[in-house]
Amino acid sequence: MTTLPSTVQERIALPAAGATTTAPTPGELLGIIRRRAVLIAVLFFFFGGLAGGGFYAWWKYFPKYKSTGLIELITNQPQSELSVDTGRLPEREQDRFLTTQSYVVKSPAILRKVLQDDDVRKTKWFQAIPSWKDPLLALTDELVSAPLRGTSFLSISISTRHTSDPKTIVQRVMDKYRESVLEEALVPYRDRQEAATKRLSASTGALNTKRNEMKDIASKLQGGVLARGWSTISQQGLLYAQSVTQLQIQMAAISQLRDYYQAGGELTAEDQAAVEADPYVQTLRARVFNYEEERSALSKRLGARHAAIQKLDDNLNSAKSSLTVAMTEAVDQRRRAITQAAETAYQNTYTQFLAATEKLKGLEAEQKLDDRTLFEFQVVQGDVARLEEETAAMQTYVDELARVIADKSALTMRISQDPVEPLARSEPSILMLPVLVLLALMVSVGIGVGVEVLDTSVRTSQDVARFVQMPLLGVVPDADDEELAIEHVELAMLSTPHSMMAEAFRHIRANLQYSAPAARQRSIIVTSPGPDDGKTTVACNLAIAAAQGGRRVLLVDANLRRPRLQEHWAGIEDKGLTTLLIGEGQLTDLVARSSVPHLDVLGSGPMTPNPAELLGSESFLAFLHDAAQRYDQVILDTSPVLIASDPTVLATLVDGVVMVIRARANSRGAARRACGLLQSVSAHIFGIVLNAAQVTRGGYFREQLRTYYDYQPDRRDRGSSKSLPK
Fold first, then answer.
1. How far apart are CA 525 and CA 513, in angstroms?
2. What is the DSSP letter of 67?
3. Pair 517, 507: CB distance under 8 Å
4. Weakest-pLDDT range from 325-329, 405-409, 450-454, 503-507
5. CA atoms within 13 A on the CB side of 172
């Protein structure tokens, strides 16, 4: 077992904080699109076909033809008393008038007259209206009436499936609108103007009365009246009241500060810095540091019970006690200084408070005589403001009505463009076809990316860094994607040493060696979140790789619930780890010598009903200590973390853990829970091995596999092969 301190820095760093985001980067989005290219292509052909077919059906069987008519509307201002010229409404009011008339065109009264016209009833548009739908609603929905911005024109248009219908309908709408507007334009405006003028006269009289009343009250105020209705006395009283309030707040803050430090409250960072700057405190802190450095240097050469070490410990404890006393005295001195300063500030503020209070009381006495008059002034002032607002609004309303009413006519109307029979279809536009195709592509890409994003399994090394947030020791390719035929992946390092899988385990061995000092990885357990994740494969090949690297390795089947090493290693007897733990055998007698130099294998032994208790016993600690003395590295294949408690028990006894996650089989949540269970018992996780990473379009190993085998010697030296998936 290792005896090195746990502060040794590891050389494989955890992912950066920025890697924890769940939003894919642009590069990852491109990778997703490459991997889902087939699905996106199929969806694009499907949705693109629907878009193209729908557009063709729309173009062939449901075209629309549009006809438009223009009416020029000009509202006239009335003749002024000193001029004979007739003016025009301002542009802003003209636009508002045209917008109003666009709604008048589609009013039910006018549209009902249009629908009663014989020519309209003979159109194919009218005859095609379903029996269940009101023709008035159909015409209201399809007729478009809108002003042309920046002009005096009102546009009226409609689109139908037959070329001759829109011209007839628009022409009849324009005729009925002109007849209706010219007859009724003046009546409502004159009635409104008469009523508004009476209300304006009454409001003006009330306003003048209130203004005179306000002047009388203002002359009675002793100190005069400010613009907002406050007297000079009340204004001064307000200032003194604010001053008294501010002084009270200051006194409360100073008193709170004084009481806080008197009660022994914690010092601020600035106060703590002042205490630390005390020369005597600095001298004692330097003395403690020197003793600690001297003791650290001697402890490397002498034992903990050596007399020199004990003497240094006594000196160190004495220095620390002196430092504590000095810090306490410095803190008390700082508190006393702050408390005294706060008391002085409190007395000064209290003197100012008394002076301001006396002045305020004097002003309040004077103000009592003037309060009632000031209140009456404020009430009348509010009435004046309200009446002024009402009068101004009423005057604006009367002026707007006067602009609309002309001497003889409210508006000038002229047909600027008669509707004509359309020469070409208006809908659909050919420009909509590329838009529909682009929309089909966007939907296809969105579905493809959504399928990938909704997949919560761990698939790539980027998923390990982002979601599991653990260092990555290596990635093992899927055996089905290998170019060389691998019969037993558990012994890939022996059967196919030139394969990409074997090379992946060599990378894992190198990363593991540099993840911590050799003395801190004497004993390692290999586990996974669930069964069939490939932990036995990783344990076997990692043991072979370490042995081939020159280390003496013991591979132990510590999976007492479902052992698997005996299926892959010859010579493993029925007796094994459990036999040793119950004291019926020795390690040297139970291990099996493998065909790999420097590699021994220890089977699980007979099944036991209490594997977790047996693995956490003192006998297992003794076995682990003995094995660490005989071998450079002990690798234990264990049960899955989320299935059994054995790995969490073993993780507290060994130097570290290698977590195996099977690509596309383990979910991100399962991987995080497995690592969390180990971290909850303070286990040291060396890193993650991503197993069975598949070759897919845009995947991790696609180009790497091709480049690796192209770089290798002639295939005749490497056995049979199979082609790499496209």
1. 15
2. E
3. no
4. 405-409
5. 21
Residue 532 φ/ψ region, left for φ over 0, alpha for ψ in the -120 to 50 degree band, beta for the rest: left
pLDDT of 374-399, one tens digit each? Answer: 777 778 888 888 888 888 888 888 87
Distance of CA 318 to the CA centre of its chain: 54
Dihedrals φ, ψ of 74, to 5°?
-130, 115
Strand order in 592-593's β-sheet? 472-477, 685-693, 656-662, 523-527, 633-637, 553-557, 599-602, 592-593
Q: What are the backbone angles phi and psi of residue 596, rounded to the nearest 5°?
A: -90, 125
Token pair 């801190």 is found at 520
Q: How does residue 95 score in pLDDT terms, banded at 50, 70 and 90?
A: confident
The model carries a pTM of 0.49
Helix-then-strand count for the chain, H and E: 26, 12
Number of other residues whose CB lies within 10 A of the CB of residue 4: 12
Alpha helices in 122-231 (DSSP H): 124-127, 135-142, 165-184, 187-218
Cβ atoms within 10 Å of 358's Cβ, excluding its own = 10
Q: Quick check: bond before 517 cis, omega within 30? A: no
What SS3 class is residue 122? coil
Residues 68 and 105: their CA atoms lie apart, in Å, by 14
- Check if the beta carbon of residue 450 is closer than 8 Å to that of residue 32: no
Instruction: Show the tokens assigned to 722.
Output: 């199979």
- Written as one letter, the residue type at 170 is V
DSSP string, 360-399: HHHHHHHHTTTHHHHHHHHHHHHHHHHHHHHHHHHHHHHH
Token pair recorded at residue 385: 């403001």
Query: How many Cβ atoms sit within 10 Å of the Cβ of residue 252?
Result: 12
Angle at CA 649, nearest 5°, toward 647 and 650? 65
**pLDDT average, residue stretch 572-577:** 88
CB-based contacts of 567: which residues, under 8 Å, 6+ apart?
A: none
With 0-12 / 13-18 / 19 or more C-beta atoms within 10 angstroms meaning exposed / middle / buried, residue 186 is: middle
